[in-house]
Design brief:
The protein is an alpha+beta fold.
C-alpha cells in the first residue's frame, strides 16, 4: 500500500502533508495490533521531522516537495523528496540549549534504518524505515541498506 502527496515547502505545507499521511496510516494500521500502535506514533514523528526538514532546508522557489509512504507486512518506509540536492544532511551536534539540531538523533533513535539518495534532476530523497516485525532496533545492523534500496550516504537531518 502506498501514499503520496506533494506539498509546498512551507511550514503549513509540511503540516498539511503530515496530517494527511497520519490519516492514511490510521486507516491502514490495525488498532488491534500493539506493534501497529507503536508504529503509528513513530511514523508520525518521522513524518513530521522529515517533512519539516524539507520545508526548512529543501526549499526552492516554485518547486514542491513530495512525501511518500510505503507500507507492507514487514515495514513502513517514509520518504521525503525535495529539490535541494546540494543540501545533503550533514552531521550537526546541538548544544544543550539549542532549539534545533537534534534531527539525526531523533531519526536514528526511531527508525531501523535511514539515509539519503540523489533524486534526478538535482534533488534528494531522505528516507527512514521502521520494521513491523523482526529484530529489534538494538539488534539491527546499522550498515545494512533497507530492502532493495541502497543508502548512498548516512548523515544527520538538520
Amino acid at each position: 500500500m502506498n501514499f503520496s502527496t506533494l506539498f509546498p515547502t512551507t511550514r503549513h505545507g509540511a503540516h498539511a502533508a503530515r496530517h494527511a499521511a497520519e490519516r492514511w496510516l490510521t486507516g491502514h494500521l490495525s488498532a488491534d495490533d500493539p506493534r501497529d500502535g507503536n508504529l503509528a506514533v513513530v511514523a508520525a514523528l518521522l513524518i513530521a521531522e522529515l517533512s519539516a526538514n524539507a520545508a526548512l532546508h529543501g526549499r526552492v522557489r516554485g518547486r514542491a516537495a513530495r512525501l511518500d509512504l510505503y507500507l507492507d507486512a514487514t515495514e513502513l518506509r517514509v520518504e521525503v523528496t525535495d529539490a535541494r540536492g546540494d543540501r545533503l544532511p550533514a552531521a550537526q551536534h546541538a548544544d544543550g540549549d539549542s532549539e534545533s539540531g537534534r534531527g539525526l538523533l531523533l531519526i536514528e533513535t526511531l527508525s531501523d534504518d535511514w539515509g539519503v539518495r540523489p533524486h534526478h534532476p538535482g534533488g534528494k530523497t531522505v528516507w527512514a524505515v521502521c520494521r513491523r516485525s523482526g529484530p529489534s532496533r538494538q539488534n539491527r545492523n546499522p550498515n545494512s541498506p533497507p530492502s532493495s534500496k541502497v543508502s548512498l550516504r548516512r548523515g544527520s537531518i538538520r
